[in-house]
Write a structure and sequence with these properties.
- This protein is α/β, with parallel strands linked by helices and 577 residues long.
- Helices cover 38% and strands 20% of the residues.
- Strands 7-8-9-6-10-11-5-12 form an eight-stranded mixed beta sheet, sandwiched between helices.
- Strand 13 and strand 14 form a beta hairpin.
- It is elongated.
Length: 577
Amino acid sequence: MLSNTAVPRYYGEFRDKVIAGEIPVCHEVSMEMNRIDDLIRDPGIYYDDRAVEGWIAFCEIELTLTDGSDLYLLDSFKLWAEQAYGWYYFVEREIFNPITKQYEPKVVKKRLIKKQFLIVGRGAAKSMYGSCLHAYELICDTDTTKQVTTSPTMKQSEEMLSPLITAIARARGPVLKFMTEGSLQNTTGDRSKRMKLSPTKKGIENFVTNSILEIRPMSVDKLQGLRCKLATLDEWLSCDIREDVIGPLEQGCAKDDAEYLIVAMSSEGTVRNGPGDTIKMELLEMLKGEYINPHVSIWWYKLDDIKEVAYPEMWMKANPNIGKTVTYEAYQLDVERMEKAPATRNDILAKRFDLPMEGYTYYFAYEETELHRHRTFNGMPCALGADLSRGDDFCAFTFVFPLANGCFGVKTRSYISSRTREKLSEAMRKKYDDFINEGSLEVIDGNVLDLDDVYSDLDQFITEHDYDVSCFGYDPYNAADFVDKWTKENGPFGVVKVIQGVRTESVPLGELKKLAEDRMLLFDEELMKFTMGNSVVITDTNGNRKLLKIRHDEKIDNVAALMDAWVAYKANKDAFE
């Protein structure tokens, strides 16, 4: 029954266990618990236990697991669903009266939660939770509704439907027995002997209410404009998507003041500074109370510190279902693999422990991109590399300083136009502001970069630090005017053209990789760490390598400039003796 003072049953049990120390929780879950406590204290918000108990009864009587065995809901599922279905509030609406032909004020009961975010480690059976929600809404809702599930790939979306398809095939409970009785081929006979719920080529259809659950690709143009009662998004954080698909989906769902629920489920990803990070910043503001939005439920599971990886008793912070849906042994094997194969470290920390890691670990492993202590190389000879291939909005320069102990100091200087900065997403702009503050990135006013302005600022930067540029390597693409000006002022000696391709990149990339592995590239700037983390290298069957960047906003320009400087240094070693 409705109550504006009652403590939700499953949340109360969960809270008691947390207070007793039986369940460890991270800081984000603790803040969500504070938000739920605020709902309990709010006299305008009501809790209805019948809604969630009805969902639980339906799932445990009717549904099955993917393999056909009986489904018994996890405590975490009950907790999440209670938050989604259990809260209500009352609002006054102008409702049209067909008798009086007028709009009249009427108090309407509305469900509070419209969006639920689940960020939880891999193996927590979050797709099964989404499948249970879809089954309940599709079968128990008497209205004609449309439901959508989306994932990075269509095959992943099918995983969301497979438990429901299995439940339909098995027809475990009385409702599904009735809904699946008859034949789909019976189109001319008695309608009562026709199948009422069935998977079809469109999705899963309820022929009694004419409702449908369908799969859609995870892209804005395929999701906008939909009027869904329930929508689930799986792995929206961990896929390499560069558009916010939740916003357009919500705009379609919110038409006509309709009741809807969007459930966004994912483990943490290794793709940084995209829409996912922007959304997480918004969620964090809600958790902290800086942005009040009671219509959003946030269950964000993660370790509070990377040091907790060493303590299995803390792993429940990242996956509340560990020991039930995934074994501790599986986690332990991944921890051991992470130690033996460092290139897998970022992915395992993100997927298993929901720790957001910086960039990709493709060519340079995580340890190789860690910053060294701050150093200055003022007055020292160096090789300069330039990558101007995107000279309209980004120019990158990298200085390489040969040191007596066989190490090489690295400094960077890059340029972007003010228009490029303005077009960045909020998360990426914050990252670029960090580069600006450390002095490795300069913003030049204008829609496109003027290479004369770039040259003047770079020349002033070199003069201020008294760098002795002994040689200059450059990629010829879009660099003719800049190189011409350089040779006129500094002479042609030591100027080396580095044409990009497997012929010229294989050897220097291999040498730079070895130096990075041995921690002999001494860089102390976040910009260099960022670009090294974005670096992907294609290797052909002959072992030849070539730098590749997946997307235009994943900058690797300073790594390309580092390679150009290295080639120039190798060609002019005598200038440093």
